[in-house]
UniProtKB/TrEMBL annotation:
Protein name: Response regulator transcription factor
Any one GO BP annotation for this protein: phosphorelay signal transduction system
Protein species of origin: Solirubrobacter ginsenosidimutans
Superkingdom of origin: Bacteria
GO molecular function: DNA binding
Record bears the keyword Transferase: no
InterPro entries given in the database record: CheY-like_superfamily, NreC/VraR/RcsB-like_REC, Sig_transdc_resp-reg_C-effctor, Sig_transdc_resp-reg_receiver, Tscrpt_reg_LuxR_C, WalR-like
Lineage, broadest ranks: Bacteria, Bacillati, Actinomycetota, Thermoleophilia, Solirubrobacterales
Length: 220
């Protein structure tokens, strides 16, 4: 089955470019285009996509608010796409439930890989970019001095959280921990449930905020 995508951007040329890139692949179908966040919500309701690729800065309703509202829509994942100019909204978008993000000058192959990865609930997109952004923004976020919920994690679930925070895919975590990929996927689901997180991106932010890892400090 094709991955159904809605593209939301207030610039027609950006929407058309993304459509051309995505529809060059036989397993991806762009089922709708939206000119702003409000339009994106309507497109999701009508088209029932698997993934929404959304810009941040748009009229009427921006990508941030749309991402918050889409967070609770079952079966829909959001990828934020923005410029890499230290956009102060990126970190908040991730906290709001975006499954990943891209920069607008990303290679077509990365955009395609991002949609596929998010559709299958897998890793952060462009982990090196993710880490750079988090390193810059997390220092401005008030840190929690630990969290009692961490104690509810099993040792393996904690290891998986550290792997996610390092930007590893399920397959890479499995290889690192010498586990089956299906086992890692189960650990990820239980870890997110115990910590009341909605996405892998939120797990990365949680790891920073609770001091489990720190900007610039390598994970195991």
């Amino acid at each position: 089955m094709s991955i159904r995508v809605v593209v939301a951007d207030d610039q027609a040329i950006a929407r058309q470019g993304l459509r051309m890139i995505l529809e060059s692949e036989p397993d991806i179908e762009v089922v709708g285009e939206a000119v702003d966040g409000l339009d994106a919500l309507g497109q999701v309701e009508r088209r029932q996509p698997d993934v929404v690729l959304i810009d941040i800065r748009m009229p009427r309703m921006d990508g941030l608010e749309a991402t918050r509202r889409l967070r609770d829509v079952a079966g829909v994942e959001v990828i934020v796409i923005t410029t890499f100019d230290l956009d102060e909204y990126v970190f908040e978008a991730l906290r709001s439930g975006a499954a990943g993000f891209l920069v607008k000058d990303s290679a077509p192959e990365l955009i395609i890989d991002a949609v596929r990865a998010v559709a299958r609930g897998d890793a952060l997109i462009a982990p090196e970019v993710t880490r750079r952004l988090l390193d810059q923004f997390v220092s401005a976020v008030p840190a929690r001095s630990g969290d009692p919920a961490l104690a509810s994690l099993s040792p393996r679930e904690r290891d998986v959280l550290l792997g996610i925070a390092a930007g590893r895919t399920n397959a890479e975590i499995a290889a690192h921990l010498q586990l089956e990929e299906s086992t890692v996927k189960s650990h990820v689901g239980r870890m997110l449930s115990k910590l009341e997180l909605s996405s892998r991106v939120q797990a990365v932010i949680y790891a920073y905020e609770t001091g489990l890892i720190a900007p610039g400090r390598p994970t195991r």
